[in-house]
Design a protein that fits this description.
- The structure is a single chain.
- By secondary structure, the chain is of the alpha+beta class.
- The protein has 9 helices and 9 strands.
- It has helices spanning 15-22, 49-56, 86-92, 117-127, 154-157, 163-174, 186-191, 197-223, 233-240; strands spanning 3-11, 27-33, 36-43, 60-67, 70-78, 95-97, 101-104, 107-114, 132-141.
- Helix 6 packs across helix 8.
- The two termini are 31 Å apart.
Amino acid sequence: MSLYEASFRVKHECPYREISERYPDLTIREWYLNDCQVIEITAPGSPTEDLLEEIDELGTVLHESVDESGLHVVTQSCLCSLEDSIIERFEAYNCLYQPPTIHRQGWEHYTVIAFDESDARNLVQDLESDRDIEVLSKTAITEQRIPHSMLAPVGQLFEGVTERQMAALRLALESGYYEQPRKTSLRELADRTSVARSTYEEHLRKAENKLLTNAGQFLRLVTATSTGDPLDVEGRRRNEQPAD
């Protein structure tokens, strides 16, 4: 099985892209996390007042500094107003988005991993229908393991996990429940909360199930080019097959 890494840049109506076009020295990196965007903005030199005003309009400023290296700002904004997300198109064509999106000199730069060359090709054809796009590279990934740095953001792994399920999982993890040997029990963990043992266990199991389900696509990606069978699954299957 071959995987394909495709990098391309696009132009369409987007406030971050438009700011990068007006300020060519600016670099904007964009991450998606659950229902919000985290934006990192960097530029050499001192920013103008006009630029700072535009940045303030992008969302809540979490960090801002100007020193000898230039401008560095981190903002957070809501995703609720975004429609026709390009990320949804990636998913429709079975392509795994590799964050961050980089906005530079009026272009949005994306990298995706496709499980089949036709998926990448069909994605590009779809994007060509309503925006300018330039394919920068398309490389087959074979005979190697996928670097962990190419996997999806943390927010995607926790998709669908509720706040209570997350809290139950964190308590178990920090209390040594997953260590060998275990340092605590489900009863002891539940006793530290205000919920019944059965309720706590339900929160914990649902969190575990959702995490493993969400991680499944990345597990398949990491092992897709592996030719080994360390658990000898195939050998076991052959031995269980009835003789003719």
